[in-house]
Here is the input.
Amino acid sequence: MIAYVIRRLGQTLVTTFIVVTMIFFLVHMLPGDPAMTILGGMTAQPTEEQLQAVRERLGLNLPIYVQYFEYIKGLIRFDLGSSLITNRSVIGDIMLRVPRTLQIAVPALILATIVGIPLGIIAARNRGRVSDLLISITSVATFSLPSFVSGLLLVIIFSINLRWFPSSGWVSPYDNFPGFLSRIVLPTIALAVAPAGLVMRMMRSSMLEQLGQDYVTTARAKGLIEHRVIYRHVLRNSMLPVVTSLGLQAGFLFTGSVIVENVFNWPGIGNMLLDSVLNRDYPVIQGVVLLVALCFVLINLITDLTYGLIDPRIRYD
Amino acid sequence: MIERARATLRLLMKSPQFVVSICILAIILLLTVFGPMIGPEPWKVDPLKRFAGPSAAHWLGNDELGRDIFANISHGARISLGVSFLSMIFASVVGAVIGMIAGYYRGLWEVLAMRGTDIMLCFPPMLMAIFLVALTGPSAVNLIFVIGILYVPRFARIAHSSALAVSQIQYVEGARAIGARTWYIILRHILPNILAPLFVQFSLGLGSAILIESGLSFLGLGPPPPASSWGRMISGAQRYLSANPYGVLWPSLFISLTVIAVNLLGDALRDTLDPRVRK
Here is the structure.
């Protein structure tokens, strides 16, 4: 186990280094001149001296390998540079926005789990019946629905027609908690739709797999009531792959949150990425992509390690 | 080979998912091919028809600029479906070649290719997509390659593990023993044996490709105007949601139906072609 953890950590370090390097060189291949962006975009006509001054300030006149080492040095000090547009520190802005994304992503993950797991169980226990068919169709439909479609449908129904929740915007939970709660409802549901369908589907197939095992027959043969067979024996074993896959759901949540944040005008990390791309704000693009990518490297590591902790049958060799 | 395909098709026809999805896809395909021929021009602006309801001339009504919604949906289908389909073709061909070579040759090439795919699979697809579009600029051709690149690792993994299994089988060893060329072995013996899983991945990947394409278009990173696309129609109509929800609803319906049909098709193919699931 320890040897495995060490090897896995080593792999993660190598992956991190490759990701960091790849993102640096890709960002430096971006078309367009950052100096031009700072001096007012494509329509401005700055003089060559102005451009040169900005390039010097950003260190863009240095050879690429010097820039690369400066970038690595900055990373070690958690310094990702500052935005070309607002001149604010990238890491500071990221720290401000990550919690806002988590404010809808965490409730969405919880919602997806508490809706998906029971429905998956019901579908598996009623395999081939109408309820199974309905749940399976719903599950395909939910993860086939683009998140902007589910988001806008929610706005049409609950915001425009019923006027229950505001259609967009964010307020700090510390300033206005009821207002904050009423604003997270729709984005959270929109974000939870697709993962709920996936959890449902995974729970169903995992449970069906377990129901075919010998130990279920044994439990039934020794006279256990069905309820106990399902909830004591089958459920425990079939939850395993579902719970460990929650890490993978994070990828879906991120994809969803870029779009859902756009629909609901939610000032999270997804909107930050999108704005930076539309503004060609290179340090911000680089910072956000790097941060999200590293989070996912970490999530993969944690998923791999917990998988072994939860399931003792998995041996590390 | 043909006999086997026929038997598979017979099995598939028994699956209600397959029949339903083929029917939906056929209708959407007809719309894509013939829709643009019968409707008015999608870019034609008519201020008098702003938010007009469905009529004989404009089957699904008009949008915020008085453009015909049906015409935009059928033209947009060409972009949305074309981009997704071609990106999967790119991903499957490149992925299959990388995976098969890695699985057949093993060694350093295998380590490089498979670690590379592992690293790429770390990234959430949407992050990579936005990043790569920022890098290359939004256009239909770039989108094909961007989405394609995202899915190369998935195909490479499947091709790799299948090729690994097949190349251990005796007839491949036999072919090698009688001096068959490597390319002959890969094309003649390995490829036919890994087609089924690649096919399943193709149809499942197509669903996500359509979602990513429409998502990028919705965010303003899709093919620029005058090309129509489903995602951009929705983002344009989004601002007039309370005045005219149909501008959002119609393209949403088409995207959702298409992805549902493609995913159902993928499920049906997997259930029929994958011996592990087949009961």
